[in-house]
Amino acid sequence: SDLNHNFTILGGTSFRDEAFETLSLKGNDFPYQDKSTWYLENSTPVTDIKDGDVGDGGSRFYGMSYFGRLSYSFKNKYILYGTYRADGTNKYQEKFGYFPSVGLGWVVSQEGFFKNNVVDYLKLRGSWGVLGNDKVPFSDGSNTTSLVTTSINDQLVSGTVSSNTFDFLRWERVAETNLGLSAFAFDQKLSIEADYYVRKTNDAQIRITAPLTGATFRRSAGVIQNSGVELGLRWSESLNEDFRYAIGGNISTLKNKVISLSGQEYIDGGTAEFRQRSIVGQSLLAFYGWEVAGVYQNQAEIEADPIAKANKLEPGDFKYVDRNGDKVIDDLDRGIIGSFLPSFTYGGDISVGYKAFDLSVNVYGQGGNQILNRNRGQVIFTNDQNIDADLVDNRWHGEGTSDSYTSAKGRRKGWNQKMSTFFVEDGDFFRIQNVTLSYTIKKGKIFDSLPEIRINATAERPLTLFNYNGFSPEVQNGIDNSTHPIPAIYTMGLNIKF
Fold first, then answer.
1. Distance between CA 405 and CA 297 in Å, rounded?
2. 329 contacts 322 by C-beta, under 8 angstroms
3. Is 440 left (phi over 0), alpha (psi -120 to 50) or beta?
4. Rounded to 10 degrees, what is the CA torsion of 154, 155, 158, 164?
5. I need a surface site. Which of 148, 297, 341, 460 has the fewest CB within 10 A?
6. Helix (H) / strand (E) containing 84
7. Does the global pTM surpass 0.90?
8. What is the pLDDT of residues 8-19, one digit of tens each?
9. How do beta strands 172-185 and 318-320 pair?
10. Contact criterion met (CB below 8 Å) for 270 and 423
């Protein structure tokens, strides 16, 4: 390298080997209360051995990787870099995956033609690359049966052929294209980071239904795409020796879409009662069910509706949207009713300092996602009479009292417990994540021998705003099955530096 050119080459290799073995045995009638004496030789041998009484197992995963990186810059103005990985694994029939990436950067503000009294620094950048994912189970196999037709003595004869169909898996390949810019403006008081990305997962491992048997096996055949923008802004300034402040915010959008399922129109997920479905052109594992159109208010409304009469419904029961207009509510009337993936997430922070005082506030939130309230949906499977207060307060208990909630009697009916928009709720929320106020006494400020002292008070998660009828809007994969509330925490602190 010299003043104008900077050139770097790096290379390396890695090896990993993970293995475990298990052995389990069962004994009865341990004669001692002290657990430290619980050894098999002190137990009564099991004479009638059943499945699970004795077992062993184990697995081994190992892989080898080779990687290299090349970077070049000219006058710190034009930047080029490239990486290449070759990753090997014993998980799949395809042992090695090959993953390149390349990136370009242009510092426009270094150009002679860039004369700007507002923008101090401007860099444009773009990149494309592929990464591999092997965080999925090993290849496996299953028995399948295929329907075949052949000719015997000039006659067509149908039959079945049984065979072993094994998973044939490759590395999942996540290809991402990114275009963005970085900038500083107004004497570097304002910083800007902006990106547009398209992330496509190729060779995603999906379940393929085997002919005739209905059994499934895995293939590296799915294609899923995520795209969106990411924007971050921050302004920081010191007005004088005593007062300083900074404010920042960021937002990220997400559009998720299933591109291909290897010829299948959809793949089901979730459970039969709480169905999720990945449909080509729609979001991954979207909630799939019926749309509630209201609640039957009186007997005259029941008599006027052939659907209600056919299903022997009563006032206080749900109406569902008849999507295909055939006067019957069945599986053909189901559709996408929400997604657990947020359309956008955002965050922000404010910090203010005045003399020895410092105050900081951090917030974040998300929107555009739904939550499946399985707590309400579990009622039909149990004898538990407890229900949440919202159901009690807003239940239908007479004509005109509710057009969104069933009657108390209706809560136990299978008709009202269908996977529907009633159980799929708004997942938007806003949270104040952290508030910290501190005061610093500098060393020797009061007495020469006094050390530096910092006193602070912190509130973690003091406020969360949401409409969801649960304890917390932060639910893993959008399914609330007895999610516990997240507590707010308030602390006081003292830091002394000698």
1. 11
2. yes
3. beta
4. -20
5. 148
6. strand 78-89
7. no
8. 999 999 999 989
9. unpaired
10. no
Summarize the chain as % helix, strand, coil (round to 5): 10, 55, 35
Which residues have CB under 8 Å from 328's CB, separation 6+? Answer: 307, 310, 322
The 10s digit of each residue's pLDDT in 178-219 is 999 999 999 999 999 999 999 999 999 888 876 665 667 788
pLDDT in tens, 260-283: 998 889 999 998 889 999 999 999
User: Sign of the CA dihedral 209, 204, 143, 269?
Assistant: negative
Tell me the C-alpha distance between 299 and 316, whole Å. 10
Query: Token digits for 316?
Result: 């206080």
CA separation (Å) from 46 to 25, 52, 152, 163, 170? Answer: 9, 12, 56, 38, 44
Q: Which residues contact 441 (CB under 8 A, 6 or more apart)?
A: 356, 450, 452, 453, 454, 455
Amino acid at 398: G
Distance, in Å, from the CA atom of 271 to the CA atom of 287, rounded to the nearest integer, reads 11
Category of 191 on φ-ψ map: left (φ > 0), alpha (ψ -120 to 50) or beta: beta
Per-residue confidence band for 39, with pLDDT thresholds at 50, 70 and 90: confident
pLDDT number for residue 370 = 97
Longest dimension (CA), the chain: 111
SS3 239: coil
As a whole number of angstroms, the distance between CA 335 and CA 290 comes to 6
Which of 34-38, 144-148, 304-308, 408-412 shows the lowest per-residue confidence on average (mean pLDDT)?
A: 144-148
d(CA 72, CA 9): 9
218: nearest Cα among 226, 210, 230: 210
Side chain identity at residue 77, one-letter code:
K
Cα(167)–Cα(221) distance, rounded to whole angstroms? 11
Q: Say which range, 155-169, 304-318, 353-367, has the weakest mean pLDDT.
A: 155-169
Q: Which of 368, 482, 472, 376 is nearest to 423 (CA)?
A: 376
Q: Is the pLDDT of residue 161 over 80?
A: no
Looking at every residue in the chain, the average pLDDT score rounds to 89
Task: Please list, in sequence order, all residues whose beta carbon lies within 8 angstroms of the beta carbon of residue 172, skipping any fewer than 6 positions away.
Answer: 132, 133, 134, 136, 201, 202, 203, 204, 205, 220
Three-class SS state of 266: strand
| Residues whose CB falls within 8 Å of the CB of residue 73, separated by 6 or more in sequence, listed in order | 5, 6, 79, 80
pLDDT digits (tens, 9 = 90+) for 388-431: 888 889 999 999 999 999 998 998 888 999 999 999 999 999 99
